[in-house]
Amino acid sequence: MEDRLAEQMAEALDGIYVARNTSHGKRIFYYYCASSTGFEGVVAEIMEGFSYEYTCQSTTDPGWTFYQQFLYPTPQEYRSIL
């Protein structure tokens, strides 16, 4: 599922898969795309092949602020990852 979503987001929306967050029984995938037009349709098409309940949403973040402030690891987190 994760690979198919990444492929389709890249192909259909010029999307970049940037992160995944798993917590509280949910897995959230984050993409930065050139456009959100057709986003929900792309996700729905992929998810038809899987038996998971899902939701999707898009927000505008041209400066990648959410990525920099939440998704990108701090220097300490990065050392821990390594």
Descriptive report:
This protein is an alpha+beta fold and 82 residues long. It has four helices and two strands. A two-stranded antiparallel sheet has the order 1-2. The radius of gyration is 14 Å and the shape is globular. 4% of the residues are buried. The mean pLDDT is 94.
Task: Summarize this structure briefly.
A two-stranded antiparallel ribbon has the order 1-2. It is built from four helices and two strands; from the N terminus they run αββααα. The chain is of the alpha+beta class.
Q: What are the secondary-structure elements, in order, as H or E?
A: HEEHHH
Q: Output the structural class.
A: alpha+beta
Termini Cα gap: 26 Å
User: Into which percent range does the helicity of residues fall?
Assistant: 40-55%
What is the oligomer described by this structure?
Answer: single chain
In spatial order, strands of the major sheet run 1-2
- Stretches with pLDDT under 50, minimum 5 residues: none
Radius of gyration: 14 Å
Mean pLDDT: 94
Strand content: 15-25%
Largest sheet data? 2 strands, antiparallel
**Gross morphology:** globular
The count of DSSP E runs of length 2 or more, i.e. the number of strands, is 2
Number of helices: 4
Write the layout of secondary structure elements.
Layout: H1 2-13, E1 16-23, E2 26-32, H2 39-47, H3 65-71, H4 75-81
